[in-house]
Each structure stands twice: as structure tokens, then as C-alpha cells.
Automatic annotation (TrEMBL):
Gene Ontology, cellular component aspect: ATP-binding cassette (ABC) transporter complex
UniProt xrefs under Gene3D superfamilies: 2.40.50.100, P-loop containing nucleotide triphosphate hydrolases (3.40.50.300)
PROSITE patterns per UniProt: ABC_TRANSPORTER_1, ABC_TRANSPORTER_2
Protein name per the record: ABC transporter ATP-binding protein
SMART domains given in the database record: AAA
Naturally occurring in which organism (per UniProt): Paenirhodobacter populi
GO molecular function terms attached to this record: ATP binding; ATP hydrolysis activity; transmembrane transporter activity
Entries under PANTHER family matching the protein: SPERMIDINE/PUTRESCINE IMPORT ATP-BINDING PROTEIN POTA, SPERMIDINE_PUTRESCINE IMPORT ATP-BINDING PROTEIN POTA
Alphabetical UniProt keywords: ATP-binding, Nucleotide-binding, Transport
Domain ABC transporter stretches: 6-236
GO BP terms: putrescine transport
């Protein structure tokens, strides 16, 4: 089965005088797994609903493959959708839920049955067809929702926070499962989450959204290590954003705005070229795999995240102690001038 590219072109959506989507453009390649990542209210669901056909954009257009779908009815867009709240029919069996999209498409009963069984097998629910939805766990229900979304072999999949109701371990397991399902089927997928780690784990590319705009579209590695804006830097992890002259070693011009991740720091100097920051401990916390040290340097607060395996001495640190941490110089990311405002 061939998958299709998606083209989102200058989409605008206004509610009253609130701009939910402000001129959003995005090209998704055929077979790509792209994640819309952003805080609550940034417009992720609105964009997904516009693609699905449940929200009519005020301006702009949407293409799936060669087809302009901007004004096409939802059921004619050939899109599989999975929501956070499953949207399963509670009074139907698992199998009837999965067969439902095929019944809508007037597929013969025997064939629908066979295809629904195959979809259930894909999501590792062989033998669950006769169960009631009410008798399933949250993770199993989400698998049924996945099976229902893929059963009619859509060429595009949209998923809106499908894992956010699950607990952490199951969520992390399902991240791999969904990515594997995508890789097996090759369906172009747009996935929505507000969880940056989930986006990093699953995606070919991430589009970071804030206040109805896309801030950056890039691979997980680029987004994390070379954020284009302070918003992206801070949303993606523990970022220290400082003027270049804040460092006690390896300083840059004060006019440079630089970013360095908390986990780049160590309590001993690295082998190659290094930068260093010196300050006084304000607070510390043990987090299992690391120690988080909050340090005051001049007027600023910086964060050091020291891996627990190399944190000898952290236990004994008391507030007020002077502390110096080093990082490899190439971990320093200098913002482009226009982005540092
Ligand atoms: P996200 O999915 O990123 O959390 P949404 O796309 O749901 O964000 O919402 C973006 C903004 O648009 C929010 O401020 C939300 O309150 C507003 N919004 C969404 N749908 C409607 C609606 N039907 N009427 C009014 N405002 C809406
Ligand atoms: Mg949402």
C-alpha cells in the first residue's frame, strides 16, 4: 500500500478574537512519522481536527497526496484517527468496534470479519474479539482504538495524545509499539503530544508549536541540541540560557546568547576544550539517575544535572558551598542573532 504526503498550507483558525492557528504551514513526507509537540492550548488539536475535517479552517488549504481536502467531508478523507479518550462504542464487542469502519464502507461481512481479526492480531489482541470493551484495561482499549484506525488501511493516521491516559510504564511501552506499527504499515502519521520525551522517542521529525504557530520543524536531535528559539530550548529539557560571558572558563562575547543543557555539566573537567561555570549551591535534589543542582552565579540561576554514577560529593554539598562544573565546549549552542530576542 502506498502512503501519501500531507501539505498544510497557511492554515488559519480564529475563535472570536482568539487566534488558535496563525498561518501554519507544514509539509509531511509520505510514510513519515511527524509529531506536533507543544504546551496545552498551542493549537495542536485544532490543526489535527482541521486535517480530519471536523474543524473548518478560516483560511489556507490542506492537501493529502494530490488531493485538496480542505472542503472534503471527514469520511471521504481516508484518514485513520485515534484520540486520547478512545471513542470506542462501549456497548459493542471488541470485534464489532474494529469492524465498524468496514461496515460504514459496505464491506462484505466475511471480509470485514477477516480484516478485523487481522487488525486485532497486528495490535496483539488475538482472541479478544468477543470481549466487552468494559472488560478491558486502558492499554487494551487503546489497542482496540488503534486496530479500528488501521483496519480500513488508511493512507494517513492522526493520533491526538493517544497515550496520555495510561500510566508511565505502559505509556513508554506503547510508544515503541505504535512506532513499530507505523514502521510495519508505513502510513504517514501525525502524532500529537505535549510530552517532549514522547516526541523525541517516537518521531522522524518534530514540529514544536506555541500559541498557534510552529516554532521549529526538525529531527529530534536538531530540536534538542540546536533549538532555534528560547521557547524550544526550554520546552525540550533543562536548558541554561546565558550571555556568553557568564562562563569562568571558555567565555564568549557578552553579546552572544548561548544555551547549554543541564546534563552537559560534570564536576570534573573534560579531556578536550572546556567551558566552566562557578557559583554557589542554592538547592539540590536526588532524582535517581542524576543529581539536580541549582546554582546561583551572579544574578542568575543555573541547573547542573550530574549523573548519579559520577556524582561523588553531591551528597555532602550544602547550600552556599562554592561549586564549579565543566562541560565540553562543543555542547555550547549559540543562538542565531534574530532568534535570541
Ligand atoms: P492543544 O491541543 O494544543 O492543547 P487546542 O487546539 O485544543 O490546543 O486549542 C487551541 C486554543 O484554541 C485554546 O486556547 C482553546 O481554548 C481554543 N479553542 C479550541 N477549540 C475552541 C472552540 N471550539 N471554541 C473556542 N476556542 C477554542
Ligand atoms: Mg489537544
Amino acid at each position: 500500500m502506498t502512503s501519501l504526503p500531507i501539505s498544510i498550507n497557511r492554515i488559519r483558525k480564529v475563535y472570536g478574537n482568539y487566534i488558535a492557528l496563525d498561518d501554519v504551514s507544514l509539509e509531511i513526507r509520505a510514510g513519515e512519522f511527524l509529531t506536533l509537540l507543544g504546551p496545552s492550548g498551542s493549537g495542536k488539536t485544532t490543526l489535527l481536527m482541521a486535517l480530519a475535517g471536523f474543524t473548518r479552517p478560516d483560511d489556507g488549504n490542506l492537501r493529502i497526496g494530490e488531493r485538496d481536502v480542505t472542503r472534503l467531508a471527514p469520511n471521504r478523507r481516508d484518514i485513520g484517527i485515534v484520540f486520547q479518550n478512545y471513542a470506542l462504542f462501549p456497548h459493542m464487542s471488541v470485534l464489532a468496534n474494529v469492524e465498524y469502519p468496514l461496515r460504514l464502507r459496505k464491506i462484505r461481512k466475511a471480509e470485514a470479519h477477516e480484516r478485523a481479526q487481522a487488525a486485532l492480531s497486528r495490535v496483539k489482541l488475538d482472541g479478544y474479539g468477543d470481549r466487552d470493551i468494559a472488560a478491558l484495561s486502558g492499554g487494551q482499549r487503546q489497542r482496540v482504538a488503534l486496530a479500528r484506525a488501521i483496519v480500513f488501511e488508511p493512507r494517513v493516521m492522526l493520533m491526538d495524545e493517544p497515550l496520555s491516559a495510561l500510566d508511565k510504564n505502559l505509556r513508554e511501552h506503547m510508544q515503541f509499539e505504535i512506532r513499530k506499527l507505523h514502521d510495519d504499515l508505513g502510513i504517514t502519521t501525525i502524532y500529537v503530544t505535549h510530552d517532549q520525551r514522547e516526541a523525541l522517542t517516537m518521531s522522524d521529525r518534530i514540529a514544536v508549536m506555541n500559541a498557534g504557530r510552529i516554532q521549529q520543524i526538525d529531527t529530534p536531535d536538531e530540536i534538542y541540541h540546536r533549538p532555534r528559539t528560547q521557547f524550544v530550548a526550554e520546552f525540550m529539557g533543562e536548558a541554561n540560557i546565558l550571555p556568553g560571558d557568564a562562563f569562568s572558563e571558555g567565555a564568549r562575547p557578552a553579546s552572544d546568547m548561548v544555551m547549554i543543557r543541564a546534563e552537559s555539566f560534570h564536576l570534573e573537567p573534560p579531556a578536550g576544550e572546556a567551558i566552566a561555570l562557578t557559583g554557589r549551591l542554592a538547592a539540590k535534589a536526588f532524582r535517581g539517575e542524576n543529581w539536580l543542582l541549582q546554582v546561583t552565579t551572579g544574578e542568575r540561576q543555573v541547573l547542573f544535572s550530574i549523573p548519579a554514577t559520577r556524582a561523588a560529593g553531591c551528597e555532602a554539598l550544602t547550600p552556599g558551598s562554592e561549586i564549579t562544573a565543566w562541560a565540553a565546549r562543543d555542547h555550547l549552542h549559540v543562538f542565531a542573532r534574530e532568534a535570541a530576542t
